[in-house]
Amino acid sequence: MFGIFPDGSAVDEAAHRVPPTTRQLFSITASHTFDPAVFSFLTLTAGFRNTPGADYQQRYLTAVADNAIGNFMTSAIAPALLHQDPRYVASGRDGILRRAGYALSRTVVTRSSSGRTKLNYSEIGGNAVAAGLSNLYYSPDDRTLSGTLTRWGSQILWNCVSNEMKEFWPDVRRRLTHRQ
Question: Can you give the pLDDT at residue 100?
Fold first, then answer.
């Protein structure tokens, strides 16, 4: 994505017809979790984190842990257990608002490994589990219900933004490179 971030989680409709194996889920997740570009992005975002009493190194390490745990829970572990396909399939529709709405909906709706539309338990539940696990390494001041819900909500929000980028980045890339 943007020629910088890895994105093995976006596929076209034809590729989506063959669900990924558990091994593939873990491989795709590992490749986009431990890519150097992701660590650079986390370096920037750690500076913006509002974690009282935490120095930059602590904020960076918690950002790395949050990202890794969240990615593995939502893109490998939960999908493998729940037989859901976490990959993003572009809408193929016309109209910016329809496409934006579709991309937003993929946070709560996904496809099962058999291709049926399902509630996206992997995303919603996986991020809830990841937010709960983060209480193991956050300071006691951040181990509150409010802190946990904020981390869960932040991960859900990031997924929404990521889906929008996956939906529209191919169009932006075509315009930038003047390809049809």
Answer: 96
Place of tokens 């873990």: 26
The fraction of the chain above a pLDDT of 70, given in percent, is 87
Sign of CA dihedral 129, 131, 132, 135: positive
Assess if residue 4 is contained within a domain: no
Residue ranges with strand state E in the chain: 10-11, 84-85, 88-89, 109-112, 117-119
Q: Decide the pairing of beta strands 88-89 and 10-11.
A: parallel
What is the domain range of residue 171? 10-175
* Nearest C-alpha neighbor of 85 from the set 21, 144, 160, 166: 21
The set of residues, in sequence order, having a beta carbon less than 8 Å from that of 144 and lying 6+ positions away, is none
Neighbours of 7 (CB within 10 A): 19
Q: What is the mean pLDDT of residues 49-68?
A: 84
